[in-house]
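re: ur msg from earlier - yeah i can do the biotin complex, just paste it... oh wait u already did. ok heres what im feeding in:
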Amino acid sequence: MFVFEDIAFLHFETIDSTNTWAKEHASELDLEGITCITAHEQTAGRGRQNRNWLSPKDENIYATLFFCIPKEAPYVMNLSQALAIACCRGLKELGFDAKIKWPNDLLIEQKKVGGVLCELTSFKDRIGVVLGVGINVNMPEIVLHAIDQPATSLAALSNKPWPVKQVLHCLLSQFIESLNMLQYKGFSALKESFDELLAFRGENISFHNGDGVFQGKLHSITEDGRLNLELDSGEIKTFSAGDLV
Ligand code: BTN
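and the outut:
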C-alpha cells in the first residue's frame, strides 16, 4: 500500500520531457517508493502516438510518476486508466466535470484538457512504470488555439488562474487511492468508475489503430479495460490500443 508521503518530488525548471528523464534515470530512482518528476516547462514534451505535447513555461502540470510493479502484474495496461480516473476525481473536487476519452484522454466540455502517457522500462525482476500526465491548467485561449485539436484549460473554463502545485497534489492524492485499488483488487475495482467517466458511450465514433479505421458505436469497456466497438454489421470488435477520432 502506498501513501501520499511515499512520494518523493523532483522538480526541474526546464527539461526536455519528464517521461524521457525518468526513463533515462530510472535506475537511480527509489525502486520501492514513487518519484514524481515535475517541470515548469518541457522543450520536447511527448504525447501518445509520437505526438508533441505543447509545454510552455509555468502554465500547466507536466509530471511523471515513476514506480515499480511486479513483472507478472496483470493490470499493467490499466495503469494509465487508473491515473485518468484519478485526474477526473481530482478535477471533480475542484469543480470540473471531466470525462475520459478511451483509453485515457481527459476531456472537459468535449475538449482536451489533459492526457496520460505510460511507458515501461524493464528491470531484472520488475517493471519500471513511467507514467506521465499533462494537464492544461492556466494555458490561455490564444495558446490553446495552437493545439491541433479542440483543447481547453482549467483557467479558460473558469476565468481564473489555478495554483498548479495544488492541482497536482489533488490529483496525486486520488492517484495513490486508485493505484492501491488496482494493485490489490485489480481493474474490476475501478471499472465502475471508468464506466461512469467514459465519454461517447453509445455514440457513433470512428476508431483507428495500426490496422485501419473502424466505424461503429462505442459499446462498452471489457472487464480488463479494453474497448468494445459495435460495428455497423452488429459484430462487437474489441481493441487494446488505438484512438477515437
Ligand atoms: C497524450 O494525451 O497524448 C498524453 C500527453 C502526456 C503529456 C505528459 S506531460 C508530462 C509527461 N512528459 C511528457 O513528455 N509527456 C507527459
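cool cool. The chain has a mean pLDDT of 95. ping me if u need the other ligands too
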